[in-house]
Amino acid sequence: MNGTNIKKLLQEYQIRPNKRLGQNFLIDENILNKIVKTADISKTDTVIEIGAGLGNLTQVLAQKAKQVIAIEKDKRLIRILNNNLKNYKNVKIVQGDILNTKYEIRNTKYKLVANLPYYITSPLIRKFLELKNPPQDMTLLVQKEVAQRICAQPPKMNLLTVAVQFYSRPKIANHVSKEHFWPKPKVDSAILRIKNIGKPKVDVEKFFKLVKAGFSSPRKQLINNLSRGLDIDKKQIKRALIKCELDSQTRAQNLRVNDWLTLVSSILF
Ligand code: SAM
Predict the structure, then answer these.
(1) Which of 65, 157, 249, 266 has an alpha carbon within 20 to 30 A of 239's alpha carbon?
(2) What pTM, to 2 d.p., does this model score?
(3) Does residue 80 sit in the same domain as residue 167?
């Protein structure tokens, strides 16, 4: 569907795109194909799509996958989705808010694919990474800056970067100009591919307590943040940093996930 067709369709149903729900629809078939190609979908795959909108990405997914579960929050769009996807028997449409719904796939492998509304990007990625049965991988169209933050390396690490890289290997697969959406958003996007999803063998709660303390005042040195946040003597923190071959004056932004993993087993708290 191009921009004119989408406009006509929405007019026909007397619907205006809802900005708050991030309704910027993809209007370029090449980009839809690029997303599905990046997701590496085959006829044995079950796919969950978040934010199906008018079903343009859903259709391309349905042609490649065994089954597509398309989740959409906006009740107004469900009628359009039902109509646009009526010939695809392998599509199940679910109305609901993915952040609040208990919808969870158990015992089945699945892939997550979405052109995400920007406001849910971080909570959604974290939610799915933390599930008991996380997806095999994710292919997400997200705001370019968010994709860059998630894939950052030292000295640009941040809490979100560590949270995602703890569970997976994220990578930017492609950049997508804002010209390919209707209505046109203010920012460009990127296709983010998140692979190798799993959980390192460590006490997750303790790990994130350490990381959160480390980033509590990002401009301050790690030693001060950890000492204050964990209520531990600075001398003990310094000994642990040196043991982990880290500069005692370093900041949280310089540490990779592996550094945090070594550090968590070197500090008693
Ligand atoms: N997939 C379509 C496309 O590529 O053109 C639409 C993508 S649009 C960027 C995001 C879609 O997510 C919108 O249809 C919006 O209504 C839906 N949405 C927003 N918040 C949601 C939520 N919390 N749960 C499920 N869907 C949501």
Answers:
(1) 157
(2) 0.95
(3) yes
